Amino acid sequence: xxxxxxxxxxxxxxxxxxxxxxxxxxxxxxxxxxxxxxxxxxxxxxxxxxxxxxxxxxxxxxxxxxxxxxxxxxxxxxxxxxxxxxxxxxxxxxxxxxxxxxxxxxxxxxxx
Length: 112
Hints:
Layout: E1 7-9, H1 15-28, E2 34-39, H2 44-53, E3 58-66, E4 69-76, H3 82-93
Parallel strand pairs: 1-2
Antiparallel strand pairs: 2-4, 3-4
C-alpha cells in the first residue's frame, strides 16, 4: 500500500483495513483539506456510513470511476464534533471484527 499526505492507495487492502485508515485520515484533516482514495470499486458503502455519522462534513468528488478502479477526492468541509466522533466510535465498536464493506463477498455457485 502506498499512503502519502494526499493519497490512500487501497487497491491491495481489504475493506476491514482500508476503512479504519480512511476514518483516521478524515478525522485528522483540517477543514477544507482533502485526500484521494484509490480503490478497486466506488467506495459507496464507506461513503454512506461516513455521511450518516458526519452529515454535511465531507464532499466526495469522483476523479475516476471505471471497472476495477475508482479515485475519489474526499474533502473535509467542517470540523467534526466530539459527539459525532464518540457516536461513530460506539458504532465501530459494535461491528464484527474484520467486517468489510460487503462488496467483496465470495460468489457461491448455485446448487444444481
